[in-house]
Amino acid sequence: MFALTRLIAAMEDADPQVLHQMLGAGMTPELLDRLRSMPLNEALRFAVGQCGLAIAVDTAAMRAQLQRIDRAKADREALEYLVRHGASPRLLTQLFTLSQSDARRLRRVLAPDVATGGRPRLPPDEMRDEIERVWAELAAEPCPRARIRRLHERFATQVIASLELVILPQVTGAWRSGPQA
User: Fold this and answer.
1) Could you tell me the pTM of the whole model?
2) Which residues lie closer than 8 Å to 65 by C-beta, 6 or more apart?
3) Residues 6+ positions from 142 with CB-CB distance below 8 Å
4) 152-156 long-range CB contacts below 8 Å, 24 or more apart?
5) Structural domain range at position 95
6) Are 78 and 42 contained in the same domain?
């Protein structure tokens, strides 16, 4: 039944390439119309018998799709972490494909207590020196998203926007270099 459902769904999507493949495999337009218009009780009887449908498994495509899903989840989690911990809209738009207005909206929704607007406070002088030292230690991290997160984890009492003020002179324009894990 699953294979039949997928076949009908592909026909309903009306993807010309898929329809062309079906016709190329010997299916006639009449057969496609009959399958598409079949009532559920007939489709069930059709599917339980030898109906000529089989499932092909493409493990490489399955792995690739799972990797895309995992990557999208990791990106969402990274974005949410940075938003919840006070990253500026400027940083968010540099690290993610996001407009300024979307970044501000996310801040209002996910972190309304952090997204007050205005310029963040600079950390005390002695802490700024420590932040710069730790930022230099983290230079081996090729992913800017992970690097800024690790910095924040070391200085969790500070909002990320405050950390940005300290490290900004060192990284101006360099957020997008390297992979974005």
Assistant:
1) 0.67
2) none
3) 178, 179
4) 152/85, 155/123, 155/127, 155/130, 155/131
5) 65-110
6) no
Q: What does residue 64 show for φ and ψ, rounded to 5 degrees?
A: -60, -40
Residue 57 lies in a domain: no
- Work out the angle at residue 134's Cα, subtended by the Cα atoms of residues 174 and 100, and round it to the nearest 5 degrees: 40
180 belongs to a structural domain:
no
Q: Is residue 159 part of a domain?
A: yes
**Token code pair at residue 148:** 């800024």
Q: Quickly list DSSP for 47-85.
A: HHS--S------HHHHHHHHHHHHHHHHHHHHHHHHHHT
Question: What's the average pLDDT block by block, 10 residues per block, for the chain (181 residues)?
Answer: 64 72 82 82 78 76 93 95 93 93 92 77 91 94 93 95 84 46 46
- Is residue 43 domain-shared with residue 71, that is, in the same domain? no
- Whether residue 60 lies inside any domain: the answer is no
